[in-house]
Design brief:
Order of helices and strands: HHHHHHHHHEEEEEEHHHHH
CATH class of the largest domain: Alpha Beta
Structural class: alpha+beta
Number of helices: 14
Mean pLDDT: 76
Largest sheet: 4 strands, antiparallel
Strand content: 5-15%
Low-confidence stretches: 7-41, 47-51, 160-178, 386-392, 401-415
CATH topology of the largest domain: Arylsulfatase, C-terminal domain
CATH architecture of the largest domain: 2-Layer Sandwich
Number of domains: 2
Helix content: 40-55%
Length: 415
Amino acid sequence: MAQNIEPRKNSHIEEAATPMNTPLNAAPISGRDGLPQPTVATIGEDEEDEAQGGNPASVLARNPALLNMMQDRLGSLVGKPSGYLKSLPPAVKRRVEGLKGIQTEHSKIESEFQREILEIEKKYAARYAPLYTRRKEIIAGKTEPTEDEVTAGEAVSDVSDSEDEDDEARVEEVDESGDKADIKGIPEFWLTALKNHQVIGEMITEKDEEAIRHLVDIRLEYLDVQHPGFKLMFEFESNEFFEDSVLEKTYYYQEEVGYGGDFVYDKAVGHEIKWKEDKDLTKKIEIKKQRNKNTNRTRVIKKVVPVDSFFNFFKPPQPPSMEAMEEGNVDEDELEDLDEKLEIDYQLGEDLKERIIPRAIDYFTGKALEYDDNMEELDDDEFDDEDFDDDEDDEQELRQAHAGGQQDAQECKQQ
């Protein structure tokens, strides 16, 4: 299992933080050390009383200049060396360097461990292969499931009896109508499975659906252990959109494992789709008329404009070159946006590898959504900090809880 993209290192931090990284003196908040005197709104008597006996956050909330100044000063202290390591005696420093050497050996073993795990994954991928082939044949209608397979599926099915009855009723209606009595395989299997993935489903447009209906299989292939990574292969039947029968995308890991002991995402290489004429789903042509001011003649201008499409997945974002980084020709906002796109692209590849391909039937039926929803409920990004300053009742409750906690602590000390 690979870990996420490693954060970029700050070039201005010379020494890592230690448990002793606490400034000897309090950070100046006035005009000392050549710092400009901040402009802070005057605090009234009521606010001053509240600041002395209550919640200081309310004072900061009403004085954004003071809040910003404090955040800037505190932020500048993060990662600053305390001088603790440099102050150690030579004998202790030598022992610290020895521990670093031991950690180096640990990292080597971690790397071997991850490579062996990768070999095990490849071994079991070979065991999964016949099952995926069997799945592909049933989806395509080349064969039918055996009675044992159907019985095993019914045993683990969590569909309610009422839903089963509804499904039977729909099947009977179709059979009686005669329109689709000869349905082959499982139509739109992969389109349905992909649309049930919360992120990929949002990427698929109505025009994309027409092309994805021709998707017959998604396969996974591991790369050589010397170049760790994996390849995703989307197999299509003949269609009116592109010439390719297989669209590929390859994800590469860095050769050395990351700090957490897992492989780290390095880059992705996409596929140049051979679109048929006027069928490129990732672009559209805008036609505009322009009039010459002098001759009053008009001309038609055609402009190719990129559009949102699932098939942009095969054109992964590319990080800037090292030369551009060294020369400082990369805008920080653009770099931050690129990092976000790379992270999303990496996560999509991992989801296809770890979730969609192994459990395609669960995404088709929607069962996988139950687990996806549960994971999202535990996501920290879903929770917002409550602002108690805007609610006097909530603030009063906090003060009472704080006072009660102090009283309980005092009673414990007396005991």
